[in-house]
Structure formats: C-alpha cells, structure tokens
Amino acid sequence: MTRLPVAPAAVADVAAAVGTDPLTLADLLRVANTPGFDRWQEQIRRTGGCSNPIHLMGSTVTRDAKTGDVLYSYSTESEPGGRLRVACGNRRASRCPACAWTYAGDVYHLIRAGITGDSRMGIPGQIRQHPGVFATLTAPSFGPVHNRPASGRCRCGAQHTDDDPALGTALDPQRYDYPGAVLWNNHAGDLWRRFTIYLRREIAARAGITQAALRETCRVSFGKVAEFQKRGAVHFHAVVRLDGPDGPDAPPPAWATVALLDAAIRAAAARVAVPVPSAGAFPARVLRWGSQVDVQTIGGLDGVELTDQAVASYVAKYATKAAEATETVDRRIGELSELDKLSLPAHTRRLIEACRDLDDAYPDRLLWRWAHMLGFRGHFMTKSRAYSTTLTERRQVRADYRARQERHERGLPDPDDAEGTTLTLAHWTYAGHGHSPGESWLAATIARDIRLNRETAREALQDELAQEGAAA
C-alpha cells in the first residue's frame, strides 16, 4: 500500500471513495504508517485474513537434542506491537468469513472423500461403487408461512421475490405453533439418532436378515449437515452409504442396492417418534419428521446429474452457517430485555421468546441457553466413524505441510531423520484478540484477495484437467 498523508478535510471524500467511514479510514492510515506494517500484513496473510485473530506473546527455541546447540529462536518482541497473530478458527461465517471459508474447504474434502475416496487419507476409490444417496429430512409444518410455491402466488395472495423479508414468516402468528417449532429444533438431534437406529432395522428387514447379521455383513456410513430454513426450522442433508462390515475398504453385500437404501430411508423417517411430556401449561406432544423426505442418487453411481462436487459443495456451504437465514443473533442472549436492543424480525423474536417461555417447563433441555439458535443445540456437521477422514486429520495435514515449509526455510533438519533430532521449547501467553477498525478493513481486503487467488487457481487447474481428459 502507498503510504501518503491525507489532509483531515479530505478524509471524508477518500472514505466515500473506498467504501468506508471516515473513522475507519483514519485508523487505516494510522496502521499503514505504523513501523512494521509490512510484517503486520504478512501475519494477517498467514491467518488467511482472519477477522478476529488471537494475539500471543512469547518465544520459542529449537535446539539440537544431542549437542544442545540453538538451531533457531523466535520471540514476539520483534513483531508489530510485540505480538503474534494467529487465526481464530471460528467456523461461523457471521463471525469470521476467512476461517469459515477454510472450515468449509475442510468439510468439502471430508464429504467428497466419502463419495469418491481419497488415497492420500487412506480412503479407497472403490467406494464410488458402493450404494450411496443424498437424503434430506425436513421438519413438519407448525403453521402456514409466506412462501413461493410452484404456482408463484403465496396463500396471502402476493408473489414474493427471493429477497422478500416476509418469506418464511407466519401467515397468522397467533395460530403458529412457536412452542412446537423450538421444541422440534431442540430435539432434532434425538430425531436423527432414532432415525439412524430405525434405518439399520429397515435395511436388515429388507435384506431378510437379523440386525446381528447386518452388523457382520454391512455397515451404514453417513456424513450430514444441518440447515435452517427461513421459517426457523432445522432440516438435515446427509450422504448415506452402504459399505462392507469393515467400512470403506470392504465391498458391500450383493443385496445392498440404491433402491433398497432409498426405501429404507423413507420407511425409517416415517417410523421415528420422539415423545415430549406435558409440562405446566404445555401439553404433551410427539415430534416427527416432516412428510417431505427427498432421496437422490449421487452421480458416478448410475450416471445421474447430482455430482459428487455439487453434494460436497452444498454440505460445506451450510456447515459454516447457523441460524442466519432467520436473522437471529450469533451469540447467546443473557436477558430477554436484550431483544429490545436488537433489530429482529417479529417471527424470529417470537421463536426466541418461546425458548424463554419453555425453559422453566423443560429445564433439562436448556432452551434459553440455545435461544439464539432457536432451540437447536446440536452440531451442524457430523459423520459416522467410518464415513471418511476427520476434520482433525485434515487440519493436521495442513499443519504438517506448513511445518515442513518452515523447517525448509529455516534450514532445520527433518524430525523423522534420526541424525537430526531436535527439541523445541516454547512459552506463549494470551495477549488479546481482534482488530482495530482500520485493521479490520485491511484484513477483509486481504481475505478477499486470498480467496480470489485460490479460486482462480482452482478454476485454472480444473480447466487444465478437463482439457487433458478431452485430449485423452
């Protein structure tokens, strides 16, 4: 960045030109003219443009384990502000778009590896031939809402646009079952758990074998993600696959087909029921999945259009989101009075208030603690043990790659080399987090540049691979 002084009178004009406010621009200029600005930029690039980096203070020393000679030393005393900034790692796009983008990439590769295999992570490519589907399980109706049906006209008589804030809100708030909606979200994890139990039973029944025999001949693997609809109800998207008894490495039995899996999923979803007892003024109810159960075959299994890339991208997209579709808050709410300070849609506020009303009646469900999530208290992305790799393994691959780069740059020996054994001693203390307004603007710019460069490189690689495939 060019470091030029800007007169105070011109700050407002420059701020308008770059799309920011004068105070942010003034701070941006301060940061750009601070000694060590280039190193600060380098730190932020290494975080991927993190919007809320963790600040650390400390030092590290790498010694030869045999001789005790110092091979490398580092201290934050020479860093800008005496601090090292590291990525926050938050998965929520509303909190940190840069770290969420990295998380989404990990989820993408995790989900796709369970569809196509990944030899680098020890997942065989033959799982492409295993029966697998992309299933969507939804919530039932809690009352009519504004929508965009195939006819184009909502029940209210209007033709809503895609960005109409009325979409998903109750047609009649007085008759909408807000308690039922938040209780359903709160028990969504229980509904999924029971679904997986019934799914195995349905598969065994259709195969004509016992459940014990099923465990010895076939394994059900899945990777799923939760998505909030505009009405504030959670639904689940899942890749479900049938393997042999030892997981991805073993071929499934001959009776394991996509048609059998499809039928078993629909039957299992219809059987699930989670009873909720009465409490105070709230009657007992039975929670079930909605009638809309969608099951699609993934491309590569029988040549349909739903590709592995599309499925993995779809799942990764929602893995970084929470309940933002309803315009709720992305943090826990302390007191109900805090809602008066927030600009919330009336429908969303009623869902949050329902969590508060139900909290005393069902104290074990922690509804108020999860009111910002409209009662949902589960994980947004989960998978069965044998579906594919894990997020921890994927992060470790990235960490190992960066560590190898740094050892090469510093001339340090490979730790796997017996002749080059080293010992690293480190001491770190927490020193804060976040950015000033000007730093936030610069970090967002860096994050956009990094993302654009990587997407451009990925598209170029895909074009090159496509050309090679056409030539072959």
TrEMBL record:
Pfam families: RepSA
Organism ancestry: Bacteria, Bacillati, Actinomycetota, Actinomycetes, Kitasatosporales
Record's protein name: Replication initiation protein
Organism (species): Streptomyces prasinopilosus
